[in-house]
Automatic annotation (TrEMBL):
Keyword Disulfide bond annotated: no
Gene giving rise to this polypeptide: ga18159
Keywords recorded for this protein, A-Z: Membrane, Transmembrane, Transmembrane helix
Record-linked PANTHER family: OS05G0181300 PROTEIN, OS06G0147000 PROTEIN
Protein name (database record): Uncharacterized protein
Provenance organism: Eleusine coracana subsp. coracana
Residue stretches spanning the membrane: 12-32, 38-55, 67-89, 95-117
């Protein structure tokens, strides 16, 4: 957990970000010859870092300031959902690919309802 003063991260937070960074670096190294894969990993890593940043801002924001942070969180989760669906759906049989996109759309719609509407 984070400390009460909100300025220092816990050991588990640092460990998680270190594992994410190391995993992303290895994925970029292994797919270095494929610019599309490198861009996918780099964009996903950046989006995850931004998502963690905005989630932390949401935790410490005043209730009246949370609207824009919620919108940023929803936009980043939508981006990540669409990225992963676009990467997975072509690998599946056509009917399963449609199901992947339908689940992604349901997730995005549910996230909009939960974060923005409510």
């Amino acid at each position: 957990m984070d400390r009460a003063d909100g300025r220092r991260s816990s050991l588990f937070t640092k460990l998680g970000l270190s594992v994410l960074t190391c995993n992303s670096a290895i994925a970029i190294y292994r797919s270095w010859g494929d610019p599309t894969s490198v861009a996918f990993v780099a964009l996903a890593f950046t989006a995850l870092l931004l998502l963690f940043h905005f989630l932390r801002r949401f935790e410490h924001a005043r209730p009246e300031d949370r609207g824009s942070v919620k919108a940023a969180v929803w936009a980043l989760t939508t981006l990540l959902t669409a990225m992963f669906a676009a990467r997975v759906a072509p690998l599946m049989p056509p009917l399963v690919g449609v199901v992947v996109w339908a689940m992604a759309a349901a997730t995005v719609g549910g996230g909009f309802w939960a974060l923005i509407v409510n």
